[in-house]
Structure formats: structure tokens, C-alpha cells
């Protein structure tokens, strides 16, 4: 299990990553939402 700090860092990296394809952007957004949900933060639907 990762610490909250590690998860926040992962979210930060994913948000900064430039993703060319729209399909991949959606996949990354889902990953970010899952990580935020794990931290107990509100997730936009």
C-alpha cells in the first residue's frame, strides 16, 4: 500500500503528463479519479 504522499505525487505526475491521444487522456483521467477516490477526495464525474 502506498502512502498518501506517494499517491499525491502519482496524481501530480499524471496531471502534468502531456498525452496526445484523446483515448489515452480519458484513461489517465480515470486513473487520476481512482487515486483521488482512494485518498477520499471528491471526484468529478
Structure characteristics:
45 residues, globular, mainly alpha, 2 helices
Account of the 3D structure:
The protein has helices at about 5-15, 20-40. Helix 1 (about 5-15) packs antiparallel against helix 2 (about 20-40). The chain has one domain. The model has no long low-confidence stretch (mean pLDDT about 90). The longest helix is centred in the C-terminal third of the chain and has 18 residues, at about 20-40. It contains 2 helices and no strands. By secondary structure, the protein is mainly alpha-helical. The radius of gyration is 11 Å and the shape is globular.
What is this structure's SSE topology?
Elements: H1 4-16, H2 22-39
Briefly characterize the structure.
The protein has 45 residues and is an all-alpha fold.
